[in-house]
Amino acid sequence: MSIRQLPEDLINRIAAGEVVERPASVVKELVENAIDAGATRIVVTTAGGGRSLIRVEDDGAGMDRDDLVLSVERHATSKLGDDGLDNIRTLGFRGEALASIGAVAHLTVAARTENAASGLRIEVDRSRKSQVLPQAMNRGTIVTVRELFAGVPARLKFLKSDRAEAAAVADVVKRLAMANPQVHFVLDGSDRSPSNWPADGELRARVMQVMGADFAENAVPLATTRHGVVVTGLAGLPTYSRANSLSQFYFVNGRSVRDKVLLGAVRVAYADFVFRDRFPAIALFLSIDPAAVDVNVHPAKAELRFRDSGGVRGAVIRAILDALGEAGYRASSTVAEDVLGAFRAPGTESAPIPVLGAAPSGAFGATSPATAGQGRSQTASFDGLAEPSARYEAFELPPEEDSYPLGTARAQMFENFIVAQNGDALVLVDQHAAHERLVYERFKAELAGGPVASQMQLIPVVIEFPEEDCERLEDAAPTLARLGLYLERFGPRAIAVRETPALLGQSDIDGLVKDIADGLAEWDNSEALGDRLDSIIARMACHGSVRSGRVLRVDEMNALLREMERTPHSGQCIHGRPTYVELKKADLERMFGRTR
Ligand code: ADP
Ligand code: MG
After folding, report:
1. Which end of the chain, N or C, is less packed with Cβ atoms under 10 Å?
2. How confident is the model at residue 394 (pLDDT cuts 50, 70, 90)?
3. What digits encode the pLDDT tens for the residues 552-573?
4. DSSP secondary structure of 559-596
């Protein structure tokens, strides 16, 4: 076949393949156009998952006759000056969206400018343009797309169910709405129950509208400027993590993006607090010199390239760590809600908790603190011996201590749970999980200042291992020494432990080294050991912690609570589980049906 110049409608359909992947991408382009036109109110309507109808209506600048005709041509844009791509401040700039949509659907663009006596419209059906016709309308632009992909069976085949396409549309609108809190958004149509997000100009208010008040309550504000990058937004508490990434929102200069550098930075920042398969909720806004980022690397403009990606990464990680550090001991309030939910009778979702009628107080025997201290409790079966499982020490709450966020310790239950009371809440602490976090953070703080202090063993502890483990431990010895653990090979199948990290105290050295050997076997060469320091510290912390099952004195419990308040990230253990739950007095009253 000889070479020929392709006809225009074919060129357009090829271009459309890149820009218009599914209904949600059409919605994205149209809403971006409306924002670029200075709209203050944007109404998005879809039906049939966007296949049968997409309409985007705005009150922006509109277009006059000449612009209207040009708008549906390829490479026709009002947004690029002759100075090119280096200083893009609008969302659009490629001049391709309307032409592409017109190539694969029935497109109507209607517009009216401020001064025009009436509106005008143009229709495009698979690249065939109509004449300009009159249209009654207010100032602004209304773009209607019907029968999307009707003539492109290959595309139709790849679309998902109406419901899935409608959900993708909603996701796109959410992201655009978050990036533009100054614009009133309405999402409507037969695909869903309508959403209405009036503009109040405040980012926080918009985040609450879009992501729910739940998220805003369980997030901390970001505010850091570094390497010329301004980072703002809200970072979810680690205990408020999700099973997928739908609650992660990334914006660069007001543009919603999915960028590897940002995703990676968030993953690193949360690595200590959130399990690998969980996703922290976050709304991250970056503001950066437009010349320092290339937005022209992806047809749908979803990806971009930073000139200084290391600097951006550093700024994001710092911003998140600072914010979470300030949140300190805070754990997600949804933890308490989950606990309260567990008390509810099954199948009664929001119904009040059943009231236990006339049950005499004390009917719960051993679980009531007043009697538990006197005898065996139900957990006797755990060890069957000696210590009572609940201890209760009666003392008055000194008024000034009312103000400790985690309260004053009142009792220890099941040798692992500290029961404390602050001004208006009952606080339950998992002592092992909490202590693990404290030891971990102490380790990291010490390591930041050089090698971790160690303490000499009077007699070296010799532990036998298979030869491969000995090899691995020997190789890791220099790294472990930085953490205060000094090992030496002791014959072919044994290791001698000479010094241990001072902050672990007298712990189970045998178990600790075995655990590290297991870790080394598991990671075997997959990553440089230096990158695994955190994992090693986590294993050490686990061994240096107050095990559950240890009885604590009241002053020990209080010391633990005070240290939690001082320590960053102590609201969750190193595995991302909460270390404490706070139940408000009002919640307890509600639980017992004492609501006003
Ligand atoms: P781009 O946005 O990249 O310029 P489009 O194909 O999306 O390309 O739009 C082409 C042109 O049509 C825009 O540059 C703009 O001038 C005009 N336009 C499109 N949508 C609107 C709108 N909602 N309000 C005003 N003008 C619009
Ligand atoms: Mg555009």
Report:
1. N
2. very low
3. 888 889 989 999 888 888 888 8
4. HHHHHHHHSTTTTB-TTS-BSEEEEEHHHHHHHTT---
- Residue nearest atom 2 of ligand 1, based on CA coordinates: 92
CA 82 / ligand 2 centre spacing (Å): 18
Ligand 1 atom closest to 56 (CA) = 23
pLDDT at 232: 92
What average pLDDT score do residues 223-236 get? 91
Q: Which of 438-447, 468-477, 526-535 has the lowest mean pLDDT?
A: 526-535
Q: Greater confidence, 356 or 87?
A: 87
Q: Residue 323 Cα, ligand 2 centroid: separation in angstroms?
A: 36
Q: Which atom of ligand 1 is nearest to the CA of 140?
A: 24
Which residues have C-beta atoms less than 6 Å from ligand 1? Answer: 29, 33-34, 37, 58, 60-63, 67, 71, 76-79, 92-99, 141
Q: Where are the alpha helices (DSSP H) in 97-227?
A: 97-103, 153-158, 162-179, 203-211, 213-217
C-alpha distance across the termini of the chain, in Å: 84
CB 9 within 8 A of CB 152: no
CA of 58 to the centre of ligand 1 (A): 12
Pocket test for ligand 1, best of 25, 72, 77 (most atoms within 8 A of CB): 77
What is the number of other CB atoms lying within 10 angstroms of the CB of residue 396? 6
Query: How far are the Cα atoms of 70, 323, 414 from residue 583, in angstroms, in the given order?
Result: 62, 24, 19
Residue nearest to atom 14 of ligand 1 (CA): 77
Residue 299: helix, strand or coil by DSSP? coil
β-pairing, 219-226 vs 229-236, is antiparallel
Quick check: 32 and 17 in contact, CB under 8 A?
Answer: no
Q: What is the pLDDT confidence band of residue 457, given thresholds at 50, 70 and 90?
A: confident
For residue 78, is pLDDT > 80?
A: no
Q: What is the pLDDT of residues 362-372, one digit of tens each?
A: 223 223 333 33
How high is the pLDDT of residue 30?
A: 96
- Which residue's CA is minimally distant from atom 19 of ligand 1? 33
Find the 331 Cα to ligand 1 centroid distance in Å. Answer: 46
Does residue 79 have a pLDDT over 80?
no
Residue 375, CB half-sphere, CA atoms under 13 Å: how many? 7
Query: Ligand 1 atom 17: the closest Cα is on which residue?
Result: 71
pTM above 0.85, yes or no: no
Position 488 pLDDT exceeds 80: yes
* Residue 383, pLDDT score: 28
Work out which ligand 1 atom sits closest to the CA atom of 62.
25
pLDDT of residue 365: 28
Task: State in Å: Cα 19 to ligand 2 middle.
Answer: 10
pLDDT mean over 518-525: 73
Q: What is the DSSP letter of 106?
A: E
Could you identify the atom of ligand 1 that is nearest to the CA of residue 99? 6
Calculate mean pLDDT across residues 219-230.
Answer: 90
Residue-wise over 172-183: b if at least 16 C-beta within 10 A, else e? bbbbbbbbbbeb
CA 212–ligand 2 middle distance (angstroms): 29
Rounded to an integer, what distance in angstroms lies between the CA atom of residue 72 and that of residue 33?
A: 13
Region for 254 from its dihedrals, namely left if φ exceeds 0, alpha if ψ lies in -120 to 50, beta otherwise: left
Strand partners, 141: 58, 111
For residues 508 and 505, what is the distance between their CA atoms, to the nearest angstrom? 9
